[in-house]
Specification:
single chain, alpha/beta, Rossmann fold, 44% helix
């Protein structure tokens, strides 16, 4: 699968209109930026993350008999919240397999939404993500990345970007598993194919950049950091063809640059972003996305207050 059909994305937009918000696209006024930066503020979704879109589309497309046994997913936090939010709305059980380094603020949110948390070591979590299986869990598994319905739901962001900024030159999307970037790119390639589309990764976990350099999926050493919403040890095999064909490259930024972007967003735009949500801004500020009008997808704002406070402290 090289792209999600535009018709699927358009139908997803109609399907989720009552359960998500059409997030604003705001200009970041930063005199030293090498381009005109616009912020697609998915951190303003009810759960503080874009994941509400894909989760909602997948659940609404599911057979009601499948949903009777509940839903479950494997997520570091944001997809878990998306699935749990919709499960609570439908009054069905929800279980979430989470890596043991998931931030407390996301775990607390999952619990508030009624999700049952199963913490496991990162390797076990990754294997669950790849296999879609976990002993003892029944119900409908909603893959946080590669489910076509999830990708189509994510792609609705691309439709909104083009409506608000038809002459966008480039879009930078945080890269975790590829579901967000593939969805947005599917919409953009169908409507405005000359738009440059980049993934954003951090130096401590950038499997896509390494794989693009090698011309094939490779495994890298993964180092956990405060940027918990993106990154891993490998590109999911089922996503490789899609992201390899749809994206113009991956922009890798340092953890320090990501911290600086969080500060810029908070102080200049009054926007609270988690590390993943700020990675695209860091990439745009570096000049990696080129000039012109560049949209950075602020994918989420679920960051521990202690972490945010430490980042905002003056050096």
């Amino acid at each position: 699968m090289n792209a999600v059909p535009l018709a699927d994305i358009q139908r997803a937009a109609e399907r989720i209109i009552d359960s998500t918000i059409r997030t604003p696209l705001l200009r970041l006024h930063f005199n030293d930026a090498p381009c005109q930066i616009y912020l697609k503020l998915e951190n303003l979704q009810p759960i503080g993350s874009f994941k509400l879109r894909g989760a909602g589309n997948a659940i609404q497309l599911a057979d009601p008999h499948e949903l009777a046994g509940g839903v479950w997913t494997a997520s570091a936090g944001n997809m878990a919240q998306g699935v749990a939010w919709h499960a609570r709305r439908l009054d069905i059980p929800c279980h979430v397999v989470v890596p043991d380094h998931a931030p407390q603020t996301k775990l607390n949110a999952i619990k508030r939404l009624g999700g049952q948390i199963i913490p496991v070591p990162f390797a076990t979590w990754w294997n669950t993500l790849v296999s879609g299986e976990f002993a003892g869990l029944d119900g409908l598994f909603i893959h946080p990345v590669s489910d076509p319905a999830v990708i189509a739901g994510n792609g609705t962001i691309g439709l909104e970007i083009l409506r608000d900024l038809p002459d966008v030159a480039a879009v930078v999307v945080p890269y975790g598993g590829g579901g967000l970037s593939a969805g947005i790119a599917s919409a953009l390639r169908a409507i405005k194919p000359d738009t440059r589309i980049f993934a954003a990764e951090v130096e401590s976990a950038a499997p896509l950049a390494a794989s693009l350099d090698a011309g094939e999926p490779v495994t890298i050493a993964y180092t956990p950091s405060f940027v918990d919403g993106i990154g891993g040890s490998a590109v999911l095999p089922e996503m490789w063809d899609m992201v390899h064909n749809l994206l113009d490259g991956s922009l890798v930024v340092s953890l320090d640059a990501t911290r600086a972007a969080i500060r810029v967003l908070a102080l200049r735009a009054r926007v609270i972003a988690e590390g993943a949500g700020a990675a695209g801004v860091a990439a745009a500020l570096s000049g990696g996305a080129g000039g012109g009008k560049v949209v950075c997808v602020v994918s989420g704002g679920n960051i521990d207050l202690e972490t945010l406070s430490a980042i905002l402290q003056p050096a």
